[in-house]
Amino acid sequence: MVLFFLAGSVSGYAQTKFTINGYVKDSLTGESVIGATITINGKSVGSNQYGFYSITVDSGDYELAVSHVSFLTQSQRIQLSENLQLNLFLLPKSAALSEVVIYSKRRDVNVRNAQMGQIDLSINQIKNVPAFLGEVDILKAIQLLPGVRNAGEGNAGFYVRGGGPDQNLIMLDDAVVYNTGHLFGFFSIFNSDAIKNTSLIKGGMPAQYGGRISSVLDVQMKDGNTNKFVTEGGIGLIASRVSVQGPIKKDKASFIVSARRTYIDALVKPFIKDTSNFYGSGYYFYDLNAKINYRFSDKDRLYLSGYFGRDVFTFRNAKLSFNADIPWGNSTGTIRWNHVFSRKLFANTTLVYNDYNFSFGAAQNNFQIKLASGIRDGSA
Fold it and tell me: How confident is the model at residue 356 (pLDDT cuts 50, 70, 90)?
């Protein structure tokens, strides 16, 4: 009798828990926001690499706040009496001018987070770093972080906590990138106009990345503006770039296409006379990024993305009748399906294709030689 009474008392005071889930997005472009912090009733969670979040609290009235280093903090009052699906929209700090705010609250998310040793950098943060010859370089920005050291001046490789450059796993939209440098390592292959976010994990890598010893650099491409068409570009000292993005079907599907090419060959050509033994020699590189995404419903999203880049070096010596052609580069393709099974279960299924190719061709008089090597693989 007493036991029954006590059990009834406990159940009478128990509170019902409900779950809030959804996506965090950029209010101007519709891009998902990675690494945003959602706080409610003293409990915090972060949006994953696809912008999805899920948090469970007791029923009641709460103040929900969402923040990110590159966006203005937003808050709203919610009454939680049932499970709630809520998409959160943030305004970029670059779109609004505000006063300088000094926070008295200690920011210790980096030590409370379950994933230790991870640093997330949005492209807006990377663009604040001084650029060499006008080219915003993700790998150069990474080398300024603690525990990371460059592999030599002008080299795109980097060491993390004493590991070698070959011990770093570098990925672009879940596809492994085998060659990360242009211009013999002076510039990275990542076009800043097509990149949304970069995550560096310096230790305790999750099992999904395999068994790399040193670090994981996970680079995410933009999904494309779902609200309006945007064209942007830039002219640098050694390369120019152009990017086009916009909605295919508003709030349903969007695309982005971004291209970059150097014109070192065009700049050097006027200084090489037609009578020179080295006339016809040159070097250039180019990149092409493309991505399409489609939202079937609030629970299903499909992404198709690809990258194609090449370095081309040619050498001509008329005096020795010697010609050499050396092209190399990467190609990647990714098909990704996001599905929300429940308010607490999010799944991502990915098919990846990688192709790295290096070839060497030379000829002198009647002698010719051709060599080729590469890596081609697929994974799921």
Answer: very high
Residue with tokens 């016809």: 280
Q: Is 11 a domain residue?
A: no
Among 323, 351, 321, 325, residue whose Cα is nearest residue 337: 351
pTM, rounded to two decimals: 0.78
Residue 90 forms beta bridges with which residues?
A: 26
Q: Domain check: are 256 and 361 in the same one?
A: yes
Task: State the total domains in the chain.
Answer: 2
Condensed to tens digits (0 to 9), the pLDDT of residues 57-90 reads: 988 888 999 998 888 898 889 888 888 888 999 9
